[in-house]
Write a structure and sequence with these properties.
single chain; alpha/beta; transaminase activity; DegT/StrS_aminotransferase; Aspartate Aminotransferase, domain 2; PyrdxlP-dep_Trfase_major; Aspartate Aminotransferase, domain 1; PyrdxlP-dep_Trfase; about 450 residues; four-stranded antiparallel β-sheet
Length: about 450
């Protein structure tokens, strides 16, 4: 089977060896632009070093994070704190528990409100509920897809305790504006950096820009483990100590001392496995090389696609480093010369035709967070808690989040492999081929009305 690394130049550009192309749409009998072997480049890339790291833990005695002495977990915590510039790092079982642990350690709880973006993964909204706090949803910026500071400011009430910016898809949120709002109102800031490993804002790594930050190590992330895992970075010594206690049943675990099994405060079993930590440590050795290759591959893809009318490619705003975890493409039928076509219909037709060409585009989130049933039905912990235990939260409109979901498609995971450059070029071939047939796209979109 041909791999991205071994394709010939002709194959990589989507041309036959005689220089010709099949320009017929694959949905109507043409040859797909992307061969099957390039539609799903593997991620994560698992090496013998990764396997050896995992086996090293299995062959040792430090299988859990509370083992006395240095473990894979403590080493990962130290290295990630150093990399992000944070004072502390605490390993957790996954990115969702990382968010909850950060909120808990900062004292966010019943009766509080936490402002989160209306466009994000469900965990961003659930984490406050897990703390019996109420999530309040702010609209997002139409270009960065991160929370809009003006929308956040309008939602602050006397009950607001925290702002949770999500560095969505790997683009840092507008942290200067958001932290200024937090300072004016005495709020804490918890970065949701689940998708933003390696991103930076004004020269500073994400994870060091607020009071705490949560990273996910889930297997699809830019820095993965072999399953699930999470990391919390923290600025304050006492808050970090609280996070370590709440990670393990509220106990105090001290090196060189026997465990007393006394729970001093409410806690959970949110510990990170040493096996997961060892795998991530091994991946971290190659992170910078993979990151550099990914940036080059993504840049080459976006440079080609930016020339297509009506296709709005993701970009960077301000002095930021984008992690390019997910690529979101907005679709503008009017700019494509298809006046009168609904963006949703344009998206649906393109989705069908691009998938037929072998371009693995998909949708990321089918509705804004506040429209998820868990937040509209408000069953929560039963009897409507935490909502019924607090004043009604402010009702923030989210038209931008709604429109972004309606008019966009995404590329997920396939571009993370450092050798995915040839595959991405074939995806560009697929986009260009479909764009050469916009009259057919329009016909399909109109027929779906």
């Amino acid at each position: 089977m041909t791999s991205p690394e071994t394709m010939s130049g002709a194959e990589a550009t989507g041309r036959d060896r005689d220089g010709g192309r099949d320009r017929r749409l694959a949905a109507f009998g043409g040859r797909p632009a992307v061969p099957k072997e390039l539609r799903n480049p593997p991620w994560p890339v698992i090496t013998e070093e990764d396997r050896a790291a995992v086996l090293g833990v299995l062959d040792g005695a430090a299988l859990v994070s509370d083992t006395d002495g240095e473990t894979a977990v403590s080493v990962l915590e130290r290295r990630w704190a150093e990399r992000t510039g944070a004072a502390h790092c605490v390993g957790t079982s996954n990115g969702t528990t990382a968010l909850q642990l950060a909120l808990a350690a900062l004292g966010v709880g019943p009766g509080d409100e936490v402002i989160v973006p209306a466009l994000s993964f469900i965990a961003s909204g659930l984490a406050p509920v897990h703390q019996m706090a109420v999530p309040v949803f702010a609209d997002v910026d139409p270009v960065t897809f991160c929370m809009d500071p003006a929308a956040v400011e309008a939602l602050v009430t006397p009950r607001t305790a925290a702002i949770m910016p999500v560095h969505l898809h790997g683009h840092p949120a507008d942290m200067d504006a958001l932290t200024a709002i937090a300072r004016r109102h005495g709020l804490v800031v918890v970065e949701d950096a689940a998708q933003a490993h390696g991103a930076s804002y004004n020269g500073r790594p994400v994870g060091s820009l607020g009071d705490a930050a949560a990273f996910s190590l889930q297997v699809t992330k830019n820095l993965p483990t072999c399953g699930e895992g999470g990391l919390v970075t923290l600025a304050d010594d006492k808050v970090a100590a609280t996070a370590r206690m709440t990670r393990q049943f509220g106990e105090v675990i001290e090196a060189g001392k026997d465990r007393d099994y006394i729970s001093y405060l409410l806690g959970w079993n949110h510990k990170l496995s040493a096996v997961q930590a060892a795998f991530t440590l091994s991946q971290l050795e190659r992170f910078d090389a993979y990151d550099a290759a990914r940036r080059a591959n993504v840049t080459a893809l976006l440079d080609r696609l930016a020339a297509l009318p009506g296709l709005v490619v993701p970009t960077r705003v301000g002095d930021v480093t984008h992690a390019w975890h997910i690529l979101r493409f907005r679709l503008d039928p009017a700019a494509a010369g298809l006046d009168g076509l609904r963006p949703e219909a344009f998206r649906a037709a393109l989705h069908r035709l691009l998938r037929a060409e072998g371009v693995p585009v998909s949708r990321y989130q089918l509705m804004p967070l506040p429209e998820q049933k868990v937040f509209t039905d408000r069953v929560g912990y039963g009897s409507g808690y935490p909502w019924t235990a607090a004043e009604p939260p402010p009702d923030g409109a989210h038209p931008v989040a709604t429109q972004v979901i309606a008019d966009s498609l995404t590329l997920q995971k396939r571009h993370l492999n450092p050798g995915a450059g040839p595959a991405l070029q074939r995806y560009a071939d697929g986009f260009e081929k479909v764009w050469e047939n916009l009259d057919t796209v329009a016909a399909i979109a109109k027929s779906a009305r």
